[in-house]
Every structure is written in C-alpha cells, then in structure tokens.
Amino acid sequence: MTAMLERYEALVATGELRSDPEQAAAADRLNRLQREIYKARKSTGLFGKLLGKKEPSPRGLYMWGGVGRGKSMLMDLFHQTLDIEEKRRIHFHAFMLEVHALLRDERRKESGDPIPPVAATIARNVRVLAFDEMVVNNSADAMIMSRLFTHLILDEGVTIVTTSNRAPKDLYKNGLNREHFLPFIDLIEKELDVLTLNGPTDYRLHRLGGMATWHFPLGEAATEQAREAFYRLTDYPPEDSDHVPSADLDVGGGRILHVPKSLKGVGVFSFKRLCGEARGAADYLAIARAYHTVILVGIPKMGPDRRNEAARFVTLIDALYENKVKLIAAADAAPEDLYEAGDGRFEFERTVSRLNEMQSADYLAMGHGED
To answer: Are 233 and 368 in contact (CB under 8 A)?
Structure first.
C-alpha cells in the first residue's frame, strides 16, 4: 500500500470523508497508477536515461463528476504523495494560457509546425502532468488540443491525470467548429481511464455548513462572510491570504479579464470590475463556463441612475443562472431591494427571482453546467 491510499483511508476513518464507492475506486486507481509510474521509471534504468531513452507512459486518468465530489481532493493526494520530482500540477485554464504563449514564441521562429517543439518544452523534466478542472470553452483551445496531447502522451511519454465537471463526450459541447475537437475526445477515451465521481456527498456544500450565500448590507461583516466562503470552498489557508492565486481569463476577442482570486473553480470578482466597465454577454459566459462558483462583492443598490450597471448585472446573472454557477454575494441590500423604484425596475424583477432561486438548496445541489 502506498501513501496515496493510506492517506485517503485515514481521511475516511477520521470522518473527514464519507464512505463513497466511486471515490474509493478512484483512490485505488490512482494508487495503482503511482505503482505503475515507479515501475516504469525503474525499468528504464540509469543507462536508459543516459542514452536519452524515454520512460514508457503508464495509462493516465480522467476523473469527472459534479462539483464537490472530491475530484480535486483526490488529485491533491495523488500529487502530494507521488514520490518523483518530474511531476507538475496546474489548473487547466492556466496551462492553456501557457501553451498559447509558447505557440506564439515558436511561430515567431517560422521554423515549421509549432506543436511538436511546444510539447517537447512542456514535457521537459515532466513525466506526470496533473490538471484540475479541464474545461474547453473557446475554439483556439479546441483547435490545438488533439495534436498537442497526442504529442504529449504518445511521443513525449507524459502520463496525464485530469479532473473535469463534464464527461469527455460533453467537452466543448455545441462549440464552434467542434468537429476539429472530436479527435481529442477519441484520444481521451483511448489513452486514459475514464472514472465517474458523482457520489452522494457534495463536499463543497458540506464545507459551507449551511452558510448563507447572500450577505448584506455591505460592510466588514458581509466581506468577512464572503472571504470565509472562499477559504472553505478551496481549502486555502486563511493565514496565507496574501498569496491566493490569481488568473487571467480569456474572454474572447483577444481580451483578458484579470481574476484577483482564482482557485479550484472558484473566482472572486468585484461588481465594479464586472458591471461598472463596458462588458457584454461573451465576457459573462466565459466566466460562467470557467468557474463553478463566483463570489461577487461590492454589489450596490441600483436605480435609473445606474441603469447601465444594472443591465450588465442582469446579463451576468442570466449567464451564471443558465450555467448553474453558484453565487456567493456581498451586497448592499436583499435581492428584492437592490433596484429602487423607477424606470427599469420591471425588467429587474426576473433577476430578483433568479437571485432568490440561486440561494435554494435545490439550485445549490445542481452540477455546474447541468441542463
């Protein structure tokens, strides 16, 4: 038994995790993968490394399921207990931003197909590449993923382990030029073991412990509640709050939206940044696809004098609602009192209804993007 399985079973024994057959099966498969990786390294041997011989690539793993089912936790355990140096764990969105930067550098060299050298660069000193939250929501990523991952897995011998909220067949569903993406789905199903984690316990909701999701009025108390929700949902230590990871989200059209706090599918935004600036439905859809939970702070009371901000807020909530994104908010009033009487109030009524529904247990239990 390796440390991976020991650590998982200890969490179950102490009550931090509940017994879950699908989760236990995934832990056992990750445990076996660790052994396969050690065996592959040993079989290559010192002389093989000196001759530049690549180690055989053990079959990777694709774990998918609803939000809060323990996918990221299992990924963390696997990575932490994998006793090799040639490993890397990265959020999938950050990885693809890195890939596009490498591709731009290669294209400037005008030396032919940029994919193989980019794959070689990524694979340098990396035998295991672990992704959290694989999601594909733009055509630029979709167009290159099949060839890139074919080179990583088959040519560079990298073992891929990834989590996702979607089954492989539902990745980039209804996306532009999706036919170019289908070979990537075939690659996943051929080269990776696909495991489902949709057990009965939503650990993220469990971590919230019945905490409300709408906090008002604005002030220190509401801000502290939103901050506490972020730490509970991401397991990030509050004492390390100065080093919370950020992200740059590609919202299309060559535009990037900076996300000041971004971890494990949870993004923190200010109302001023999302609704006080000139943004549209494409921006909000990119956010809704990238994050299963959005924490929105600084929501003011609105009225006819803030009609533009209110219209953007309506569009934002529509995108989050339609993609079943969880919303945790720090606002200056309850949803019913956010928009004062006057021109535009009638159009805001649907948003009030949606905001109230988004606080319900039924809504919170839905999976991200669930139809």
So the answer is: no
- Residue pair 68/202 in contact (Cβ under 8 Å)? The answer is yes
Same domain flag for 119 and 215? no
Which of 251, 246, 226 minimizes the C-alpha distance to 331? Answer: 226
Crossing angle between the packed helical segments 345-357 and 307-322, to the nearest 10 degrees? 30
The C-alpha atoms of residue 33 and residue 130 are separated, in whole angstroms, by 13
Angle at which helices 182-191 and 139-150 pack, to 10 degrees?
40
Query: Lowest-confidence range among 133-137, 189-193, 229-233?
Result: 133-137
Number of Cβ atoms within 10 Å of the Cβ of 35: 13
- pLDDT given for residue 1 in this prediction: 46
Question: What secondary structure does DSSP assign to 272-305, as a single string?
Answer: HHHHSS---HHHHHHHHHH-SEEEEEEEPPB-GG
Sorting pLDDT into bands at 50, 70 and 90, what band is 197? confident
Angle between helices 21-50 and 71-81 (to 10 degrees): 30
Which structural domain range is residue 111 located in? 3-196
- Mean pLDDT taken over the chain: 86
Q: What is the CATH number of the domain that holds 303?
A: 3.40.50
Q: How far apart are the C-alpha atoms of 28 and 164, rounded to whole Å?
A: 19
For residue 36, pLDDT over 50 is answered with yes
Model confidence pLDDT, tens digit, residues 239-267: 777 788 888 888 878 888 999 999 888 99
What percentage of the chain's residues is helix, strand, coil (to nearest 5)? 50, 15, 30
**What does the pLDDT look like over 333-347, one tens digit per residue?**
999 999 987 777 777
CB atoms within 10 A of CB 190: 9
Contact 249, 287 (CB under 8 A): yes
Which one of 196, 214, 239 terminates a domain? 196
Using H for helix, E for strand and C for coil, what is the string for 178-204? HHHCHHHHHHHHHHEEEEECCCCCCHH
Residues 180 and 328 in one domain: no
| Rg of the chain in Å (alpha carbons) | 22
Where b means 16+ CB within 10 Å and e means fewer, 124-159 reads: eebbbbbbbbbbbbbbebbebbbbbbbbbbeebbbb
